[in-house]
């Protein structure tokens, strides 16, 4: 198919399957091709999603500069790997020097799949004047589907101007923006302080990147059911294993480098924060070990009130992500419902996890809970911690958090 400037169409009209290639071919001058991954506001929220010669791959590996020949640059795409925060991919070309796009002999953008050309947008220098950059095509999400827009638009200034246009930063003494380092050297820190968690840290990082959460700053809390029915979960080591999985998330979000922990039965029982220094054997040692703080009946509203009050004390602090673990027997539905409606106005997201139990009460119906300013809760259950792989567990834990962040920010609950 020959594409024309200004044309828009569903990407599925051209591409079948998740993998394809975009090739940018320019003749008559020297120019560099790049791709900007933008958020819903058209901004480069994470500079690691600017893919160019000096940064050839996105963190999620859904966008990769795979080849550069004399007059062509190839990008490999797997759109399903991109985090949901990436709403647009804009493919551009920019001149590093004083030439202008009017000197272009000819150029084209080619979409390829299975080594065959499926669509081509052709242009030439006479289409432009003194511009030093071009915005060529754009892939964007609409209604849950990807679409293609053919721009073919000249842009005054070079790559620096494009980076600033999309909300990025440019170093003072170079025309190419530096590659932004990861916000937290999570793997290095854990390798030094808790090496037994290194494999988990790598898997947590991948899930965070898939959800677009790699730059998120948050407080992280873990609430552990310590009622008598949880005995086997503690005795078998499942609760300690869960702690091991949650700590890398807390370190990555890295508000304070620690995981806030509460246990509860009839009352809330604050425990020491979990860190890389005390995570090994935490369940057997914190405040005398689990046998010293489990055994009564479960009263979820009591600990919920304590957690809400704890995270409300500092209104200017980052938002909180709370993982709340229960083995069921939830019966105070009305009180829990009232607390979740109240908590929706605060910067707290609640991820409820049912572990090896039943009768989770209102926790199973959070998606239909009315009266909240935003949906501030998620829930999933599993019979055993080992019924999900570590990667699957991270994906489930983080699935609804990005939507809450977006909605809470839109409502002014978080800034």
From TrEMBL:
SUPFAM superfamilies for this protein: vWA-like
Matching InterPro entries: Stress/Tellurium_Resist (IPR051324), TerD (IPR003325), vWA_TerF_C (IPR019303), VWF_A (IPR002035), vWFA_dom_sf (IPR036465)
PROSITE patterns xrefs: VWFA (PS50234)
Domain called VWFA: residue spans: 219-397
Keywords: Tellurium resistance
Matching Pfam families: TerD, vWA-TerF-like
Listed GO biological process terms: response to tellurium ion
Superkingdom of the organism of origin: Bacteria
CDD domains: TerD_like, vWFA
Protein name per UniProt: Tellurium resistance protein
Originating organism: Thiorhodococcus mannitoliphagus
